[in-house]
Amino acid sequence: MNSTSRSSSVLRRVATAIATTAVLGATLVACSAGGSSSGGSASDIDAALKQGGTITYWSWTPSAEAQVAAFEKEYPKVNVKLVNAGTNTTEYTKLQNTIKAGSGAPDVAQVEYYAIPQFALSDSLVDLSQFGLDKLKDDYTAGPWGSVNVGGKLVGLPQDSGPMAMFYNKTVFDKYGIAVPKTWDEYVAAAEKLHAADPNAYITSDSGDSGFATSMMWQAGGRPFQVDGTKVSVNLQDEGTKKWTATWNKLVEGKLLSTVPGWSDEWYKALGNGSIATLITGAWMPGTLEASVKESSGQWRVAPTPTYDGTATNSENGGGGQVVLKQSKNQALAAGFLKWLNNDEKSIKVFLQSGGFPSTTKDLNSSEFLADAPEYFGGQKINEVLVAGAKDVSTGWQYLPFQVYANSIFADSVGQSYASNSDLNTGLKAWQKSLVEYGNQQGFTVTSK
Prior knowledge:
By secondary structure, the chain is an alpha/beta fold. The chain has helices spanning 3-20, 42-51, 64-74, 89-101, 116-121, 142-147, 170-175, 184-197, 210-219, 239-253, 265-273, 285-292, 331-343, 345-353, 361-364, 367-371, 382-391, 403-408, 410-419, 424-441, and strands at residues 53-58, 78-83, 108-112, 149-150, 153-154, 157-158, 164-169, 225-228, 231-234, 278-282, 300-303, 320-324, 445-448. The chain is globular and about 65 Å long.
């Protein structure tokens, strides 16, 4: 059995497991899309755009409607049916159902970087290299570009980027005489000082978030997941991961973290009243703060992610791109729309106006983008910090080919360490055991170190 056939067989068994379990939409690795690439070239895109037609686009991005309108204005013969099929996991479940059924998939879909490998392994995505989009490599930063290249195929184009940064409440820091931490040791010290001064205040909130945890492992040099097709290695006790837990355990075991659930009304309120003083998160956060935490306008600032030894290094948190589904009956037109969506200046301008953080090097380095100084952040040129963070992202990170499922069970293992204020390594070992068992049950060859 060749690797492609093995992948399809593996993913068919996973799809069966999804149909018989109720795990949050569960794993989204599934059977082959049933279609095959029609072949194509860069000239086919031009011809398809000139001829026109109708395609369907699934997206939940705030900029999607305006981008589609701008595209249709430029290409009046093309009709793009925009569908909001739900945010991330909700959309992925619906998308996976269409893949399993062999029909009903959109032509183009928004997929976050962590979920792309699952759909790529199911052989349900078009290799965009056949349309010459691989030649766009130099237009994007390394992290996002690497995330849309899976198994030697270009399975999507990056849209946004999420280099990590530290967002901090300067008013709170000034009130308690806390210096902006440059290292993680200084960050822990700041947490201790803040909570001692005000028992209701915390350096940040974290009750166990898988996306945050993996970003922190990545930044510390951890590479716990190694993937080669259906061969997977899991080592959640590698040197980098343990470097992160050695620091974060001081906060978890010391009860120095707010347990307010992220993205809840209580969380936004805590960000507004200063009881959560920092956020270590992706560069897409400014728009969220400005829109949802208006009461603390002028108080927040942005600084580089703290490091372990003073050497600048960073990771990504969040972000995603768009893919073309093999079920598409007009793959060339879909690829043309996708190229315009994530590579055309008019589209990217719309995206930036909606608060997006680009993955395109040209936009990241533009004087206009770098000079932006929002009043919300006290007139700080925050993009200078965020762009530097994008350049410092370390390479070599991989997600599991069943990462969506992995994230869905994080609370059952690592989340318990948070809940009991105990060693995160205990939870990570339990998570690893579950991931190895699950992967092998679905037909992957998963080894544990």
